[in-house]
Design a protein that fits this description.
alpha+beta, binds fe (ii) ion, Jelly Rolls, IPNS-like_sf, DIOX_N, Fe2OG dioxygenase domain-containing protein, four-stranded antiparallel sheet, 24% helix, eight-stranded mixed sheet, binds 2-oxoglutaric acid, iron, disordered N terminus
Length: 382
């Protein structure tokens, strides 16, 4: 089993330090990982048995999840129950959104949000100091998007209860909210199902996380990656300076991410050797990866792995990550099943919303956040 640790983070260190994106990234890159590239696989997990009445069938899927989460931290899922038409239609909504004239997107600018919601123009936000070519649209959980109807208790990342999403006007892009809602509702259901499998995979009762995901954090993004401006981009390491970064190297913040993308490849996952693995596109599959909050919760038993996006093709790439968390007011402590006899937790208890907001703001200049800020990172200071 891999033994990567985040060396710079002591048990009770403040998360402000941990959160700083370049510091965090550097510490993760410096962490020693004992698995080899040969053990670094991104398995394809067929979810069919996870819907079986038999607990043993469900546990067989959980075991595969555990294997992936303790090594590469990434896996594909197929036969997840979301119709292909729903997947295609959210990618079409993304295409429609990004084709809107910039003037229609200005009202939704991310600088109008305290939580990083709304429209991110190209080269506006950055995860690792790179000028990122991607354009994005971010939104969070709201009850209207939850097929379970929710329980009326949703709170924003900072505990407030105002409505925080920034939606385009229906007249500007008719059917957008409904289309996004169809997808969000479906992926939220799948995420709750996955959490039950995660519970089994961690030797916990299957319903362990259910009560923590009744009005959960669930930030989704529509992302657009233009083809590179350079004429002949190449995957060779020597040509790295020619790469046009779509989304800088990072690990995700929440519990786990479900990623849908168009057929254009671009997702690159950092292997133990330091080389990038270019993820293959599998039609109708999701890529799921462990995120930092889950890594922390499991005392590093589950790995969140660094990844980035570089579009090396001459086609546009669209993607729709969904970052799943628990109810933001939950305070989490290391899961007991992740501690060996006598082992101490590496991390202090922390609130889910508090942690994610700090990580989000840490990607901005002086940690000031996006709200009201015209410039959110120092361009050219990688
Ligand atoms: O667009 C992708 O393929 C990945 C996006 C991603 O890693 C993110 O938004 O955190
Ligand atoms: Fe990511």
């Amino acid at each position: 089993m891999a033994t990567a640790t985040i060396q710079s983070i002591a048990a009770d260190s403040v998360t402000k330090q941990e959160a700083r994106s370049t510091t965090y990234l550097a510490s993760r890159l410096a962490a020693k990982d004992t698995i080899s590239d040969a053990d670094f696989t991104i398995p394809v997990i067929d979810l069919t048995p996870s819907y079986s009445q038999s607990l043993d069938d469900r546990k067989s899927v959980a075991l595969q999840i555990r294997q992936a989460c303790t090594t590469s931290g990434f896996f594909y899922v197929t036969h997840h129950g979301i119709p292909s038409s729903t997947l295609q239609s959210i990618l079409q909504q993304a295409e429609r959104f990004f084709k809107l004239p910039p003037a229609s997107k200005q009202d939704l600018h991310i600088k109008r949000s305290k939580y990083g919601y709304g429209w991110e123009p190209s080269e506006y936000t950055s995860l690792a100091g790179d000028l990122e070519s991607k354009e994005g649209f971010n939104f969070g959980y709201e009850e209207g998007l939850d097929r379970s109807g929710g329980d009326g208790k949703y709170r924003n990342l900072d505990g407030s209860d105002e409505k925080a999403n920034l939606w385009p006007n229906e007249a500007v892009i008719p059917g957008f909210y409904e289309g996004v809602g169809e997808y969000y509702g479906a992926v939220l259901n799948l995420a709750r199902h996955m959490f039950r499998l995660f519970a089994l995979s961690l030797d916990l009762p299957e319903n362990h996380f259910d009560s923590m995901t009744t009005h959960p954090g669930g930030i989704a993004r529509l992302l657009y990656y233009p083809p590179p401006k350079n004429s002949q981009p190449t995957v060779s390491e020597s040509a790295q300076q020619k790469e046009q970064i779509g989304l800088g190297a990072h690990s995700d913040y929440e519990c786990f991410t479900l990623l849908l993308s168009s057929t254009t490849p671009g997702l690159e996952i950092l292997k133990p050797s330091g080389h990038w693995h270019v993820a293959t596109h599998i039609p109708d599959a999701f890529i799921i990866n462990v995120a930092d909050f889950m890594m922390r919760w499991t005392n590093d038993v589950y790995k969140s792995t660094i990844h980035r996006v570089v579009n090396r093709s001459n086609q546009v790439r669209y993607s729709v990550p969904f970052f799943f968390s628990v109810n933001y007011e939950e305070v989490i402590e290391t899961l007991p099943t992740c501690l060996k006899d006598g082992e101490k937790p590496k991390y202090r208890p922390i609130g889910a919303g508090e942690y994610i907001l700090e990580r989000l703001n840490a990607t901005t200049k002086d940690g000031a956040g996006f709200y009201g800020n015209e410039e959110v990172f120092e361009k050219g200071e990688a």
